[in-house]
Design a protein that fits this description.
SH3 type barrels
Length: 87
Amino acid sequence: MVRTEDVQRLIEKRLFEPFRICMTDGRTYDITHPELCLPGRTMVHVAVPDPKMRRLIMRVDQCALVHIVRFEPLNGRERRSPRPRKT
């Protein structure tokens, strides 16, 4: 289960690395700046930028921590589980 501390650790990195939040219903949120994500005790508030004017916020979605499946880096490297070795 995802905890508030897990989200805080991602957004408070000294050198911020953009990441994607993946939800149980298939929605994803790309966090390209630490100020787009505000963690709370039971949910994360995600600011969704306007696609036409990236410096404006279109809406703020609330993501319950229990519905966050995983985080993925947005730097082109996907986290993958190791493949089984052929014997």
